[in-house]
Every structure is written in structure tokens, then in C-alpha cells.
């Protein structure tokens, strides 16, 4: 074993909290409180939920809400950058990004200690259903950016982060493309919840499916997965919390409950990936000669 | 609702049993016993485990074992065809196929009542590790066959079967390509087990990962999944049974234990797929403009 392969334990935290109203500074102060708790507990990597600076405004289509958007060098990113530098941590935040007039994104940002913002990821898969009008607000992320294909991981001092956002979590393609580009872990800042009119059984099927699909990305790619989710009721959606961190075989390392704000911590073993890929060599056996049609919307059956 | 959308319940069964030794007729009689039980319980679709006519010979590399292979119109398929016709069921079996001298496959076959063999699927992803020398025996299935891309589902009177085999279960790509071609359910005849020298914790992580990855294919594609697995000890592998059937949101409908031979039954609601795809429209939002690199072995990072 070389020195490079030793000492690859990483203490990570994900945070779930309520983000009521539209006072960004107030919500950022809530985030800061939990970030400080996590850093004091030794977390080197800390991940916040999707759109944590405001209430989840996509419950409706309202043109004024575009005023909430801000550029990548805006106030929220500056605030998070300062925290990351002060606490000497790697921090993943989430903003409603104004890229230019008429182009707005749902963007995760990475603040890496005193190195500042070392990368960002614009949500690629955009949902749209009652209570989640995201196609109205968010332009989908670019399929290629600066000549690199999408789902490019972000290099930080704690490893290469495969950053994805919420609805991306239902797409094995996204996780795979991050893994093929060298991601060392997958990260899904999330805002997902139940419709209170659904039965408890329906709700449980939904949150169980959500947990399983993300654990499956760990399993298929042998990568740890970190998922912070929003919590609390907003405008008819009960955000279901249950933030979790799992290891590279999908095993749950820690999980939050569905109601309470707080942090969860886990020690992630980054050596596990190579060991598992030797024991279960899925990547060796991918039938890349047979996958071309994955770029089809549907393969219509004409006979 | 049109008549076409009504009455889409399907009673299905998966069978797990031991398959000791190399007397194919004897093992086929074991299969037949359980097939009859399942048919009497009302099963319209019955699925057998991988390579059920013999012991799992891939534990070692032995040239004589190629003598076990037989053509698609060989004795084993004829036997299964007769059962399917007699019991008026749709039956999925598994054979070691001799396609020609020097080309052998691990092939699932579909016998559809009195219609005979309506299709087959040659395992695409071939594992190879200690105790599972499959690359020695099995030529991988063709990337295209008769001008159609691989993972083409098989039309039967109970629906379009997305047939895959064992190691294929670790590849979201395979499930997706079956779904994009109109599969109405996914089926994985399997022979997977524990190494008894591993710890109980390692073993449980493995079988839990196996269950989750297959439930994730249900979730990502909104299709029911049927998985029969071999059971019993053979040549240093403890096949772990735990055959299961889950619904189109990954919810477990029925599951066998890890030790005993037997059948498990479930009523599958084939209407659930369209309903779930309307509520959770993943297929609408796939970023097919960004998936081209899924045909890469690895996307090397040159800077």
C-alpha cells in the first residue's frame, strides 16, 4: 500500500432544517448554526439541503420570485465562502442562480476552505408537477460546459465530489456519468416531500423508493452517497427530512428522522471504493458496445 | 378507461430450489414439481432460477462441462415447453446453450403456453471471479440481434417480459434499455451466494445490496421485478435464496427465505406502471442530450 491509499477516512455531515420565508440572511444564519455544530464535531465536509436560503418558492409560478435569484458571486455564496474559510471546511451549498437575464438555474456550489468557490453544478434534470413548478424557474444545466461533458465532478481537498441535485437522484445515468468521470462520492442536496392528502402507505412507498434509488447509486458505482433533505411543512408539502449518508455498498451509515432539524455525521471510508470494485468488478463488464440507445427518448416498437 | 386498461392483475410465481449434480432430468423433475404447485395456486407466469438443470458448474474451469450445453431446441427446452403447454402457463427457464461449436451462452428461454418458445435472451454481462468462472463458459450475448438492439423484451400473452440474467442485475443500463423497448416487467433468473468465510455483516451487506439494486430498477423504470435465486450449498458457495417479487415502485410483494426450497406468489398490478409514470415522470425528463458518454469505458481526466 502506498501512503496515498492510507488514512482515507473522511468525517462528513449533512444538515436538514426548515427554511421559512424569504429573508435569506435569516435562513443562512440557521444554516450557519448547524454548520458550526458539525464543524465542532469534526466534520471536514458539510452539505446543505436544496435551496436552503429561502422557502421552496416553486410551489407556485410567480414572476416576483425571480428576484430571489443571485449570481455565483452574490451575497449568499460570499456568506457561505466566509464560513468555509473561517471553519476550514469543505461546504456544499445551494442557490437560485441568476446566470443572466432570463436564464436562472438551480445550482449547487462548493466552497473549499480558504480556496473559495472551487466549482458549481447546475441541476440537469428538472421536475415539474403540482407543487413543484421547477420548469418555470430553472433552465436545465448545460449538456456540455467548457468542452467537458455534464456531471463533471468537482475536485476539493476532501476528494472529487460528484455533485447532483434532487430530481437527478432518480436517474442512474447521472450517477454513472459522475462515477465515470472519477467522482469519489455522490451528493444530492434535496427538497422532497409528501402530499398530506396521500395515505401513509403511499407516503412510505415514496420515501422508501427515494432512499433505495439513491442507495442503488452507491451500489452500482461503489461510491458513498450523501443526501441532505429539507424538513417541515411549506405551502401544502410536508418535506420528509430523513437525510442520510450511506457507504459505498449502499449501507446506511447514519440517517435523520422525518421531523426534526439537525445534523447527522458519518465517517466515510474512501478506501472502500477500490476494494469493492475489485471484488465486484461491474465497471470491467459494462457492455459499452450495447448502450448506444440510452440516448433515445424511447425505442419505438414498429412491429 | 378503455377495456384494454382494465383487469391487468397478473398472478406470478418465482421458484427457488436446489439443483444438485448433473442429472438434468432429475433437476427438471424438481422444477416441474414446483411449477405444478405454482400453477395450481393460479400462477399465470412462473420463473425458474438461473441454470436450474444442473449444479452451478462455473465454480471451476473444466472442459467436460461444455458437454452439458444443449441447443435452443434441445431436450431441456422441449421438457419445459411441454409443461408450459400442459399447464397453460407462461414459463421462463434457463439453459446452458450450445449455439455452435465454440459458442456457448447462458440463456433464458420463454415458453408461452401452447405457443411454444416465443423468445430467448442471452446473458449480456458476464461475471468472472473466484467460484464464478463464467467468462470461461459463456460468450456474451450479441449487442444487436436481427437488427434489434440488445435487451429486446419478449412478447407473451401475459405481457412484454424484460428478460435479464443474474450479473445483468447490477447494471441500470440493462434495465433501462429493456424499459425503453417497452418491457412491462423485469425478470432476473439468478444464481448468487455467499462465501462462507465472509463475516455475517459482509454477507448481509451483499444480499441487501443485491435486493436494493434490483428494487431500484423497479423504481427507476416503474416496472415490477421478479427474481428467483438458487438456494443451498454447492462447492463452497452458499446460494442465498431470498427470491422476491416487487411492484413498480420497488415495494416488496413477496420474498422467500435464504434456506428453503419453494415457490412465492404475488399479484402484480400492471396498471401501476402508467399511473406511476404520470405521477413521477422520469422518462419525460431524461437528459438524452447529455448521456452520450455512457458508452465510454471511463472518461479519463487528463488535467
Gap between N and C termini of chain A, in Å?
A: 56 Å
Number of helices of chain A: 7
State the secondary-structure class of chain A: alpha+beta
Low-pLDDT parts of chain A are 1-6
Q: Average pLDDT across residues of chain A? A: 96
Radius of gyration of chain A: 19 Å
Range of helix content of chain A: 25-40%
Short description:
Two copies of one chain form a homodimer. Chain A is α+β, with helices and mostly antiparallel strands and 303 residues long.
Architecture overview:
The structure is a homodimer of 303-residue chains. With 303 residues, chain A is an alpha+beta fold. In chain A, 25% of the residues lie in helices and 27% in strands. Chain A contains seven helices and 17 strands. Chain A has helices at 24-40, 75-87, 134-137, 172-180, 200-221, 272-279, 282-285; strands at 9-16, 45-47, 90-100, 103-112, 117-122, 144-145, 148-149, 154-156, 159-163, 185-187, 193-194, 225-227, 231-234, 237-240, 244-246, 252-255, 262-269. In chain A, α1 (24-40) packs parallel to α2. Residues 1-6 of chain A have low confidence and may be disordered. Chains A and B meet through α4, α5 and α7 of A and α4, α5 and α7 of B.
